[in-house]
Amino acid sequence: MLIALALALVVLAILSLAAPLLAWAALGVRVVYAGAALVSLVFAAGGFVGLVSAPEALALPFGPPWGAMRLALDPLSAWFLLILGLCGVAASAFAFGHVKGPEAPRRLVPYPLFLAGMALTLLAADGFTLVLGFELMSFASWVLVAHEHEQAENRRAARLYLGFAALGGAALILCFGWLAAGTSAGAGFAALRAAPPDGLRALAILLLVVIGAGSKAGLVPLHVWLPLAHPAAPSHVSALMSAAMTKVALYVLARVVFDLAGPAQPLFWGAVLMALGVASAIMGALRAALEEDTKTLLACSTIENIGLITLGLGLALAFRAADLGALSAVAAGAALLHALNHAMFKTLLFLGAGEVLHGAASRRMDRLGGLIHAMPWTAGLVLVGAAAAAALPPLSGFASEWLLLQALIAAWRVGDLAFQIGAAAATALAALAVALAAAAMLRFYGLVFLGRPRSPRAAGATELSGAARAALIFPATLTVIFGLTPGYLLELAAPALRLLTGAGAGLSALGGVTVTVSEGGAGYAPMIIFAVLLLMGGAAVWFARRQAPGILHGPAWDCGFIAPPHHLPFGDPTTQVSAAGMAQPLRRMLGKTLLAAREQVEMPPPGSIAPAHLQAGFHDPVLVLIAGPLPRARDRLAALAERLRDFSLRQCLGLGFAVLLGLMALLIWLERR
Amino acid sequence: MSIFTALVTQLLHLALILALAPVLTGCVRWLKARLMGRRGPHPLQPWRDLLKLLKKRPVLAENASAISRAAPYVAVGAALLAAALVPSFARGMLLAPFADLLLIAGLLALRRFAMALAGMDVGTSFGGLGATREMAFAALAEPAFVLAALIFAILAGTTNLDVIIGIFQEGALGLRVSLGFAAVALLAVAVAENARIPVDNPATHLELTMVHEAMILEASGRHLALWDFQASLRLTLWLALLAAVFLPFGMAAPGAGPIAWITGLLVFIAKMAALAFTLAVFESAIAKMRVFRVPEFLGAALLLGLLGAVFLFVSTGLS
Fold it and tell me: If you placed Cys at B264, which of A2, A63, A622, B252 could pair as Cys (CB 3.0 to 4.6 Å)?
């Protein structure tokens, strides 16, 4: 299977090379996207095979001077490859359905490269290959983010993204370099595993991998680029970035922290990840509940879900450190399951937002509304995704968040008092994030699809059929199926869980029709719950409709407001709730402390007939930090460096000589140690 | 045999809840009216209203979508399932293995989401306002509920409601400060979830103060009947939950016979009557608070829950 996957990477490279020529005709563009979809299918199949069969390894006949590049397919990479494959199929099919004619090569060339970079990161079995794949992924996605570089805001987003990608890449290179410093056998994963870091080196590696992977995954406080960059890319790329690329970054985090850093890391490693996860979950969910742009809202919801997954990973790490193997498997299972579920419903939501952008020509929720009438298919399918993102039973989001909360509720078994109190607070904050996400999803769905159209374009929206619709049906179906079968998915993920937690026992209790946390503990049987729910709802339908079947239609009651005049067929669009209005309670409740939200009312003087003005807004505190002190520090450094130019020849020579001396001194010092 | 008993208790429980829910709403209204010196409507009035409304066809707004038509059934189904999970007169019902507190929270969230969607469907200003406020309040109520579940789970070892009640019934735990905190937190959540005073006024139709009623302003006919019914179900479910966890005595054990059921039933009705009276007194004695004070009220509940958990860790030295 691994050879087939390597060949799939080659196919992607060929597609990318041929893309400048193929971009000239609609047929060629379709060939690229169809090829990407097929290769993604191969990835998904490879992931599935990797989970049910023994690990494979492959040494490539080329590589850096210190050894060949190596690929491997073990259960952990297979699970994430499965996620990548499923997202890739949906995103490529969506792009295929939206091909209208020749496309700009700058949009077409990076797309196969992006997929290839993500797959290479997942399949890498040595540090060099992993960093190569990671950087390929960063670079290709940067080109896609900058595809509409005519607009200043997109240029800004791409620049910020590039800065964070460079920071993350540098941290990862240092991280793997430092890991490999403990061995003499190159940077292969087997060699790294044999010499796990300890002491200060371990701490440095934790810090570096959190910066490297966390900046790509969007962990607070390295998240600020994400709500700007994800929406700037084309919709199918936004879907891939939010659903798959963040997961690839989390894979790197899990690989280093759980696998390469050895099994003997202290409890606080888990606590660090948990704290970061909780902060991301709250920040992401709150911002999602306040944003006014569909794709930005979804990108913020990605931050929230990444936070929840990181919380699960951190909890698994803490349980492992406390020698609670079975609970560690529950927490890691929740994280892996949520990674898969989030990938599916976020792909669906982003593609739905893309369909809305295409049909109603806007991403601003204040210009949309009532699309359920014009775009019934999209509205129905997106409802599935929004309900899953709002963690409603029996859909997939609820299953994994139920498991995560169960693991959090069991966290007191770790025994350390400070950890117990922290975990109780984390439980409350995770529940808060989940509830905030529900509010954000209601706001998203209600403003975009329900109510009355807020602009003429929204009233005249259309939707596509064919491949674009199938691209939405596919993840929606999987969201429903995954919601009903979490037990079987956990059984499928069992080899990956064993790799993460080292727990052999305790996994068998998880799977099956009923997901149970421990013997005799609470259980969740989604299929039974769904069946009973259908039964109850069906009984209500049967009973209520028996006596007076049928329905009458009339003008909206609206507390007695009169019907709108003829020149406003949908009424005055502003007499319904707006995006800012829907955000107001949460902005006042939580936004003031967390996001520096403010409201300013300007009343006209008495007697004046001028309108009053209400201004409301919020800032991400991290963005303020980056926009202020960071550029100032850069300017100061640049001014300092400028002085070098004015050096005389003597000073230049002196500087070179001093640097030489300094390096030699360093060398002597290192030799002595 | 045991499955048969479980099935029979489950069906009896369901029938009891279905019959009792509107009566309970009526009782609370009647008690409140008496406390305020009015005669008040008959306690069976909600049942009469329901039967009358069920005979009427709903009038939907012209731009209402399928959401308006489907949401009441989803909400009633979710509320019904949640109510079926909370034991009333006997433990060990058929659905007891699935009576998980987090699942109940999820089902209540499903009900709330359906209601908020229905509120936004027609695009009136009140519907959107109600939906917004409902979801914002729930954002603080849900973590308080989860923290209460956390306290129960630490004491009982699981979040399964049936097992928790069984362990509380044995009385080996004694009185605990943490349980007191959890009780106050759950009461606050119950008040907010049921749209009662001081969070919301169930009797008002004054636009600026309402939350729950604002979402169903457009509903009529059998849809209105369903919305009212699910509100009654939710009140019954919450009172039954509080009664089962904090007053667990008198409940029939799993596998017990009909005589234990009858005792359990009588005790259950007495408990519900007492809780309804307490609710009526509480609502009559207190004024509705401003909407923007509600977060403080629920935030206090959240902090109490957290305090309860911390007390538990410190006092028992769990390790």
Answer: B252
Rounded Cα–Cα distance for residues A235 and A417 (Å): 46
Chain A interface includes B148 (CB < 8 A): no
- Give the SS3 label for residue B63: coil
**3-state SS string for A543-562:** HHHHHCCCCEEECCCHHHCC
For residue A401, which of A283, A530, A526, A488 has the smallest C-alpha distance?
Answer: A526
How is residue A541 written in tokens?
Answer: 């339908």
Smallest Cβ–Cβ distance between A528 and the set B59, B98, B128 belongs to: B98
Of A373, A442, A558, the CB nearest to B116: A442
If you compute the radius of gyration of chain A from its CA atoms, what whole number of angstroms results? 26
Q: Is residue B318 pLDDT above 60, yes or no?
A: no
Tell me the pLDDT of chain B averaged across its residues. 91
ω into residue A266 within 30 of 0, thus cis?
A: no
B216 touches B119 (CB < 8 A): yes
Residue A560, token pair as written in the block: 């007695």
Which tens digits make up the pLDDT trace of A236-281?
999 999 999 999 999 999 999 999 988 888 899 999 999 999 999 9
Token pair recorded at residue A665 = 């001194």
> Any idea where the domains of chain B sit in the sequence?
2-143+206-285
* List of residues 6+ apart from A666 with CB closer than 8 A: none
**How confident is the model over A385-398, as pLDDT tens digits?**
999 999 999 999 99
For the segment A471-522, what is each residue's pLDDT rounded down to a tens digit? 999 999 999 999 999 999 999 999 999 999 876 655 655 677 888 887 667 8
User: Nearest CB to B117: which of A398, A434, A446?
Assistant: A446
Average pLDDT over residues B214-221: 89
Q: At A597, is the secondary structure helix, strand, or coil?
A: coil
Q: Between A and B, how many residue pairs show a Cβ–Cβ distance under 8 A?
A: 280
Q: Of the candidates B143, B205, B31, B106, which has an alpha carbon nearest to the alpha carbon of residue A530?
A: B106
* Helix, strand, coil percentages in chain A from 3-state DSSP, rounded to 5: 75, 5, 25
Residues belonging to chain B: 319
Q: pLDDT tens-digit profile of A548-584?
A: 788 999 888 887 777 777 777 666 777 888 998 899 9
Q: For tokens 């007194």, what's the residue?
A: B281
Alpha-carbon span B162 to B96, nearest angstrom: 6
The sign of the CA dihedral A585, A589, A594, A596 is positive
Query: Is residue B158 less than 8 Å (CB to CB) from chain A?
Result: yes
Block residue for tokens 């409890």: A267
Q: Copy the structure tokens of residue A661.
A: 């001396």
Residues 6 or more apart from A3 whose CB is under 8 A from it? A58
Query: How far is Cα A127 from Cα B74, in angstroms, rounded to an integer?
Result: 51
- Identify the weakest region by mean pLDDT among A159-163, B29-33, B201-205: B201-205
Q: Note the pTM of the prediction, 2 decimals.
A: 0.95
Q: CB contact, 8 Å: A369 with chain B? A: yes
